[in-house]
Amino acid sequence: MASSSTTISLSLATTALISHQRTTTSVASTLKPHERTLLPPSSLLGTSINLEKTSLRPRPITRSKERNSSHGATCLASSSPPPPPLPSALLFDCDGVLVDTEKDGHRISFNDTFNERELGVTWDVELYGELLKIGGGKERMTAYFNKTGWPEKAPKSDEERKEFIASLHKRKTELFMVLIEKKLLPLRPGVAKLIDQALAEGVKVAVCSTSNEKAVSAIVSFLLGPKRAEKIKIFAGDVVPRKKPDPAIYNLAANTLGVDPSSCVVVEDSAIGLAAAKAAGMTCIVTKSGYTADEDFLNADAVFDCIGDPPEERFDLAFCRSLLEKQYGVCMDAQV
């Protein structure tokens, strides 16, 4: 009888263990990977258990909840979660983002160049807005002349026309730089503030533009000042073979700076710039400019009319961090 009793007792214990294992496995299967670490060690399958001394009731799984008041999210963790990551790099477009240069800067300089060369060409405000859909000044002029016809003074062969366009663009850049050096075009609100916040936190800062490198360098040096300029990397002009909306310039920036594209935050003002940033796998904030206010920015992570300075600030580095917080999923929605 003793042997039979022992057999029955062992059978009941085994049944209870299997039931416990199934319950634990079922609970574990509903949890996300980081929550499974909260399961008690005795719940692991294959654990050696003393059937005579061990209670087979599964221990409850406890979760500590923290409310993130700024985002309305509940974090599931055994202790306070780490702060969301700062961006590894903050990447700015130049024209329309740092300075609203297009209408009263680049357009005027193009027209002055056409006038000096007696080409009989003038780009009005509306036409130039359409031409801005083409990235790069040389590319813009080439597309325009291909469509409307080349000036009589332009050469006939393709190779000579490339040189002709390059010479026009060089002169246009010289005239544009005079405007910048005289500080006739101011920085947009909040630009200096956001750059200072990033540099103070050790976040890398760069400017990624389709404009001529000399023109971009002039804007950074004269309008942001030499102390900031020496800490800002510039990627501009023909540094890449394909202009925005191709992501080449943002890919180059990430590779050169040694950062993961997914940890970069881009500030753009145009649809082609947004497309380039997203194609590179980066988070992108749009600050609309005079020519881009009506463009489609549905794919942007956030859209503002400007960065802004206090008391009319629109966003800051903390907001950039919050966008990465959503991306990395540091906190989960309260319904989880």
Keywords:
11 helices, alpha/beta, single chain, 6-stranded parallel sheet, disordered N terminus, 336 residues, two-stranded antiparallel ribbon, disordered C terminus
Give helix % range: 40-55%
Chain-averaged pLDDT: 81
Secondary-structure-based class equals alpha/beta
Q: Characterize the main sheet.
A: 6 strands, parallel
Structure description:
- The protein has helices at 2-30, 102-116, 125-131, 137-148, 158-181, 191-200, 213-224, 226-229, 248-257, 271-279, 317-328; strands at 64-68, 73-77, 89-92, 204-209, 232-236, 264-268, 283-287, 302-304.
- The protein is of the alpha/beta class.
- Strands 5-4-3-6-7-8 form a six-stranded parallel beta sheet, with helices on both faces. A two-stranded antiparallel sheet has the order 1-2.
- Strand 1 and strand 2 (73-77) form a beta hairpin.
- Helix 5 runs parallel beside helix 7 (213-224).
- The relative contact order is 0.13.
- Mean pLDDT is 81; it is low at 1-78 and 330-336.
Summarize the structure in short.
The protein has 336 residues and is of the alpha/beta class.
SSE map:
Layout: H1 2-30, E1 64-68, E2 73-77, E3 89-92, H2 102-116, H3 125-131, H4 137-148, H5 158-181, H6 191-200, E4 204-209, H7 213-224, H8 226-229, E5 232-236, H9 248-257, E6 264-268, H10 271-279, E7 283-287, E8 302-304, H11 317-328
Parallel strand pairs: 3-4, 3-6, 4-5, 6-7, 7-8
Antiparallel strand pairs: 1-2
Helix pairs in contact: 2-5, 4-5, 5-7
